[in-house]
Amino acid sequence: MKINVDFKLLDVTRRTMGAKLLKLTDVHIEKTAFEILKSDDGIEVDSKDISISSDGTILHKQSDKPVLLYIREPGSNIPKYHIAGCQTIKSFNETGRLERYVAAYRDKENPSTTFKLNVLQDDGSRKTTLQELYVCKNCLRELNYNGYDANKSMRLKIFSEFDITEFFNLYDTTKHNIIPNREENDYNQDEYPPNWKFISNNYKSGVNYQCEKCGVNLRENKKYLHVHHRNGYKRDCSNDNLTALCIKCHSDEPQHHHIKNSSDYRSYVLLYES
After folding, report:
1. I want to staple 175 with a disulfide (CB 3.0 to 4.6 A). Which of 48, 60, 84, 123 is the partner?
2. Pick from 222, 224, 228: which is nearest to 242 by CA?
3. Distances (CA, A) of 138 to 77, 90, 134
4. pTM of the predicted protein model
5. 107: exposed, middle or buried (C-beta count within 10 Å: 0-12, 13-18, 19+)?
């Protein structure tokens, strides 16, 4: 552990025997990156500290340790963790929604399958909890793990008996070739920024309150025009990541079908679709 001391702030008293008294508040203790990685709470792996090895595995630059990928802010379904660059990861990458994933440090010495999730509450807020997750079946198929593709009964057996420690003994690394930008303990949770209302209104005004998909103009009924995040990460409010969609087009976006259950959706259909 590295200890940084600001000598300008030290309250130093020299006694006759030459000892120094330091106020504890003046000593700043800083963990090194590797010590943070080894901490019990599974601290995040920063993407800038990650490199891809020649075989396509993802490693932390300082520790050469692998990471797992998972969705930190799930919807109604409990997410799986990923050990490979499977079809699910490829699909999210192709649709520009990979930012929903975060990277978590795991290896032989830290084989935990308990992850930090920001779980959606009834009031729309998110609460950080620790939850046990299962491995992704598409990852097992991607690796043909232990002959996963042999038959259905074999697939069920391998999935239900999957052991992350055994996996690390076989592979000693994870098989990802895509790097997410967020990390497991990213304290900037996937929430709208404080000025989201201003950003949203400004964007809608910039496109003249017109749905950028179907073309309907909602200047007279602005509440039916939403601003959608293309990559699914609410904190990324760059113009390239935003698009204005009517409530109907918005409900057709991946993982937005719940909008169809809202009263605004039903009233929009009566006004514009009937």
Report:
1. 84
2. 228
3. 16, 11, 12
4. 0.53
5. buried
